[in-house]
Write the structure tokens for this entry.
Amino acid sequence: MLLNIISGIVLSIVALFTYMHFKQKYIKARQREDFNRIFGDWKSSLPTLEFGSSYGWGTFTVTFLKKQDLDFAMRNKLTEEFKNCIQSYYGSRFRVDDAVRFRYLENE
């Protein structure tokens, strides 16, 4: 009887971890799709997206090749659109301005 209870608890924990793993993979794939939708028609080199984590929350670094590319994205509100998409995954407690970082590599 006790063995059945313990094995049921262990099985439930394994199932929960498996569910969370696949849920995270699904969310990351959706976030990548949002990134490609927003920045996919890029005229210059496509920026890159790096995923990270801090205190259990997702972090995102979007890297542009040139400063002009970042300026263009900011002027056309592409950066805000991306941040709004990311915010929608996490809710109001998520501080998107701290979690999403935009940078560039070259200085022309």
Remarks:
- The beta strands are 48-54, 57-66, 100-106.
